[in-house]
Amino acid sequence: MLEDIVVGFESTGSYAEPICQYMRNKSVQLVQINPMHTKRLKELTGNSPNKTDKKDPRVIADVISLGHSLTVIVPEGAAAHLRRLTQARERAMEHRTAMNNQLQHLVFIIFPELVHTIKPSTKTGMYLIKRFADPNQLVFAGIKKLNDIIRKVSRGRLGDDRAVRLYHAAKKSVGITEGKESILFEIAHLVSKIESESSYIEDLEKQMGEYLQKIPYSQSILSIKGIGNVTAAGLIGEVGDFRKFETASDVLKLAGLDLYEISSGTHQGCRRISKRGRTLMRKLLYFAAINTTRKNGILHKPYQRHLAKGMPRIKALVAIARKLIVIIFALVRDHSDYIADYSSQLVFKKAA
User: Fold this and answer.
1) Cβ-based neighbours of 252, under 8 Å, separated by 6 or more
2) Euclidean distance between CA atoms 270 and 262, whole angstroms
3) Which of 230, 243, 246, 262 has an alpha carbon 20 to 30 Å from 190's alpha carbon atom?
4) In Å, what is the CA distance from 166 to each residue of 101, 141, 298?
């Protein structure tokens, strides 16, 4: 008679999540199988690369019996919402970036000088493109009006010289004139879509902030200077629940930031990250590492020590990203907030 039932599945395809949600309410243990493991193990089964629906379940069962399955952490409640919102934001950001690139291409055709004077993706650049994509419109507006607009929209960050440069560039523009009206029509459409996408992203980030407040340990993560609402919400959504992991190493594996090397005999291979984990999670940690290693950042000194040893900048940032995971895991585990220069303060207390 069966006492324990273990159900394993490959983490591929849209069908995996509905099945996982259905089975997790049953009295079974759910485990996840890396598709790479089944791909390699199937070569050993029957000494054949054959892959069929009949063979795959047996291969998956062999992986489970060998103890190489992965733990399934299904986000629940607010964490589940954060995962969906984070993924939606990522798709929206990619879509907006694609539209911005397309917009810049079109603007360059009819007014190439504008692209070299003000970045189209900035607030000021977008405002000017929406109203003065045609260089003739910009010339008609005049230097004074341009200067007032640029100062107001950029909030004083851009000076009078920018308006003068734009005006003279517009007068001597080498942009095309044939078919220009059709391009202006498409530019107006793209600007409208970009504004709509930006508004959607803002709404997503607002909802992320609301659900983040419902996570008990979110303030522990936010106490780290350099990690904001979007990053914290994204990490919690990707992990599911930090409290369900036993060690920081398990979280590192989930992110694909665990190290491996290929060595044999006297040959010592270089250590690299496996990248066998959640891609978006690695991306969030990488940008968080950039924020925390800036001047006066909490991890600026460790980052500089890595660079002083000759470590390339990207590898140093990956090392900091790994360190961030360890810090976040410890803060969540201990229900505490991050204290800058904790070790030096501890030495001071002992001396006192």
Assistant:
1) 258, 322, 325
2) 7
3) 230
4) 21, 11, 41
Question: Alpha helix locations (H) across 213-299?
Answer: 218-222, 229-239, 248-255, 279-292
Cα–Cα distance measured from residue 147 to residue 164, given in angstroms and rounded to the nearest whole number: 8
DSSP 269: P
Q: For residues 260 and 277, is the Cβ–Cβ distance under 8 A?
A: no
The structure tokens listed for 332 are 């969540």
- Structure confidence by residue, pLDDT tens digits, 41-89: 877 777 777 777 788 888 888 888 888 887 777 788 999 999 999 999 9
**Could you tell me the pLDDT band of residue 342, with boundaries at 50, 70 and 90?**
low
Please name which of 340, 349, 290, 278 lies closest in space to residue 318, comparing C-alpha atoms.
290
Helices (H), 66-142: 78-110, 112-117, 123-132, 135-141
Percent of the chain as helix, strand, coil, to the nearest 5: 65, 5, 30
Q: Is 281 helix (H, G, I), strand (E, B) or coil?
A: helix
Query: What pTM did the predictor assign?
Result: 0.84
Q: How far apart (Å, rounded) are the C-alpha atoms in residues 119 and 124?
A: 8
The second-level CATH assignment, the architecture, of 79-210 is Orthogonal Bundle (1.10)
Q: Are strands 6-10 and 29-33 parallel, antiparallel or unpaired?
A: parallel
Domain boundaries, the chain: 6-72, 79-210, 219-351
| Three-state secondary-structure class, residue 29 | strand
Q: Which of 129, 117, 190 is nearest to 158 (CA)?
A: 117
Whole-angstrom distance, CA of residue 130 vs CA of residue 121:
12
* pLDDT band, very low/low/confident/very high, at 292 (cuts 50, 70, 90): very high
Length in residues, the chain: 352
- Round to whole Å and give the CA distance between 236 and 242: 7
Q: What is the dihedral of CA 275, 273, 243, 230, to 10 degrees?
A: -70
Number of helices (H) and strands (E) in the chain: give both, helices first: 17, 5
**Distances from the Cα of 69 to the Cα of 30, 34, 64, 102, 131, angstroms:** 10, 8, 5, 44, 57
